[in-house]
Amino acid sequence: MADVSLTNVRKVYAGNVEAVKGVSFDIPDGGFCVLVGPSGCGKSTLLRMVAGLEAITSGECRIGARVVNEVEPADRDIAMVFQNYALYPHMSVYENMAYGLRNRGTPKDEIDRRVKEAAGILAIESFLDRKPRALSGGQRQRVAMGRAIVRKPQVFLFDEPLSNLDAKLRVQMRVEIKKLQRALGVTSIYVTHDQVEAMTLSDKLVVMSNGRVEQMGVPNEVYRKPASKFVATFIGSPPMNIAKGVVRGPGAVAVGDVVLPVSDMAADLKPGDAIEVGLRPEDLIVRGDGSLTMQVDFIEELGATQLFHGTLGGAHLVIQAASGLVPSESKTLNLAIDPAKVHLFDVGTGARRGR
Amino acid sequence: MADSTARSHLDRPDILAHVIIWIGIAITAFPIWVAFVASTVSNQSIAQAPMPLLPGSLGWQVYSDVLGVGGNNRTVGTPVALMMWNSFVMAMIIAVGKIVISLMSAYAIVFFRVPFRNVLFWMIFVTLMLPVEVRIIPTLKVVTDLGMLNTMAGLTIPLIASATATLLFRQFFLTIPDELVEAAKMDNAGPVKFFFDVVIPLSTTTIAALFVILFIYGWNQYLWPLLITTDQSMTTIVIGITKMIDTSGGPTDWNRVMATAILTLLPPVMVVVLLQKWFVKGLVETEK
Questions:
Q1: Nearest-angstrom CA–CA distance, A287 and A293
Q2: What is the CATH number of domain A4-228?
Q3: Scanning every residue of chain A, which has its alpha carbon at the shortest distance from the alpha carbon of B204?
Q4: pLDDT, tens digit, for every residue of A58-75?
Q5: φ and ψ of A15, to 5 deg
Q6: At B242, is the pLDDT very low, low, confident or very high (cuts 50, 70, 90)?
Q7: Interface contact A104, partner B, CB < 8 A
Q8: The pLDDT of residue B10 is above 60
Q9: ipTM associated with this complex
């Protein structure tokens, strides 16, 4: 087991393309860190640098006490699970899992013990003799994880491991990965573009955009206090509503002609300043005595919840509420909001303008 | 009623297709049949018109003469068995040599970041424009100067370098996903281990397909062996057949020539039959 720490890690490709622009963070021993961001944000490149598959242009990558910048991938004591599984097609499941150990000169009976043990954990004992092509996507994914587990590495690296699975299996495997990581207690770095995976799996969430870290922290904190408009709209589904607004005074902003109370507002904002107002769909509460009135355009029925599409003060909004609260033919909704749940962002930089 | 019309609608093209196939087979197979019949009858029967179309009784005699002795006393006296052995060894060395060299050069071109990688690839590629026939005089000079006339080495080495096979392996290697290479790196498999443990097992069908093509290519070589082998003990079978035909105007033992032709057909046919399963797979398989 070991902690992982990155210090000012940069990656510059030929042609002066800067894919990762100086990233620093630490993952404690046994921690589960998820790197999330849109495609091209540098998250995979960062993971591959930790893996040793990409050279680090500058900065330092440390695993445990050891700086690994110049260490070969095989000697970093890490294991990686790839998006397309990358199983050896001509080897049986057993051989796939044993290959890395065999190459390290592990004794045969030890290999056998470890493979059987990992197969037991992952419930794949019954296909140890099969070739990968005879397995389903979910089973291949398990084998790929088995190949990582048998090595008993210090760090697990996951590169979008669930994106080739269908939706149902993805949810199931997500839970299993989380359980497995807890049980084994191995420090893990997980790359995904799926914010649900990111929220559910991580105990440290790193949101990346354009080669930079936008925000990192505990998932709930990132969700509740997004550091920028980018994070606010990227994390959460349906995404946070963003409306153009104007500062009215301390603790009040206006969206069109609707005035909203705000408790978290930067002190240097003056009345008349343009601002962007962020409202989570579930933070606007449908209440008969609510002071805000939204015009409803249409309703999306999701079963447990409903999504109301409409306008408030001229801005387009999506509101999420439990089903059955409002008759489906409603043309207006009365809403209330907690002043603590109104987020303000700078119009130019998108940075949070809170205290 | 409706059912039967539907059936006949399906049946008619089927029968037509079979008729066409059988006509095609007959056209292809007839000369071989004639050669076989000719190898089992006397020379007088061959010379008479019409030539018989059913096998005669001399077959065993002719084949054992040819294998043990060769042509008649006015032409070559090299036994066909020896010439077939020479041809077999030559074809094997060429096929195996080409595959080994091409596997290694394609591996280097695809998986390593060597300087001027593309230039190297194009240099190999350009040699496609220089087959043996084009460079035959300089090659002959080199081989002669090295004292490799009438040796197996002289017979095979100039034919081994192969751009075609390198190109084919390169195309196949490019389909191996990068992640597989990376997974192998994680699994502590160095380049040599990766080559033998992953690349070669994945290439077996391609190797089999190439072996079939290259073995036949080697077996059918005519011009180069004609130049390089003057010693009768090094004669290959394809050369041997032509030498059995008396060009000076004397009578040719056509039954012996035909028997030799039939024997010459056998090894390539065997190779195709034995490897055809992999051969077809290697040419059509895309799934990795």
A1: 10
A2: 3.40.50.300
A3: A90
A4: 999 999 989 999 999 999
A5: 85, 15
A6: confident
A7: yes
A8: no
A9: 0.83
Based on the fold, state whether residues B18 and B104 are members of the same structural domain.
no
Strands A241-249 and A274-279 turn out to be antiparallel
pLDDT tens digits, A170-209: 999 999 999 999 999 999 999 999 999 999 999 999 999 9
User: How far B208 CA sits from the closest chain A CA (Å)?
Assistant: 16
- A chain contacts of residue B176, beta-carbon cutoff 8 Å: none
The token duo for B143 is 């081989």
B193 part of contact set with chain A, CB < 8 Å: yes
* Residue keyed to tokens 């107002």: A277
Say how many residues make up chain B.
288
The CATH-assigned architecture of domain A238-345 is: Beta Barrel (2.40)
Closest CA to A310 of A300, A302, A301, A318: A318
Q: How far apart are CA A114 and CA A101, in angstroms?
A: 9
Mean pLDDT value of segment B105-121: 90
How many domains is chain B partitioned into structurally? 2
Cα–Cα distance measured from residue B237 to residue B267, given in angstroms and rounded to the nearest whole number? 11
Tens digits of residue pLDDT in A242-293: 999 999 988 899 998 899 999 988 888 989 999 999 999 999 988 888 888 8
Q: How confident is the model at residue B287 (pLDDT cuts 50, 70, 90)?
A: very low
Contacts of A83 in chain B (CB under 8 A): 179
Which token pair is B9? 């609608």
Question: A81, A111, A82: which is closest to A97 by C-alpha?
Answer: A111
Cβ distance of B185 and A84 shorter than 8 Å: no
CA angle A231, A179, A72 (to 5 degrees): 75
B212 and B264 fall within a common domain: yes
Residues B137 and B52 reside in one and the same domain: no
Measured between CB atoms, does A88 come within 8 Å of chain B?
A: yes
> Do B108 and B231 belong to one domain?
yes
Residue B117 has pLDDT above 90, yes or no: no
Q: What is the pTM of this model?
A: 0.82
Is B196 within 8 Å of chain A by CB?
no
Report residue B250's pLDDT band, with 50, 70 and 90 as the boundaries: confident
Q: Are residues B54 and B94 in the same domain?
A: no
Yes or no: say if B82 and B239 are a contact pair by the CB < 8 Å rule: no
The answer on B278 and B157 residing in a single domain is: yes
| Spatial distance between the Cα atoms of B184 and A103, rounded to a whole number of angstroms | 10
Question: What residues make up the domain containing B31?
Answer: 2-68
Cross-sheet strand order for the sheet of A17-27: A17-27, A4-13, A58-63, A66-67
The answer to whether position B74 is within a domain reads no
**Cα separation of the two ends of chain A:** 38
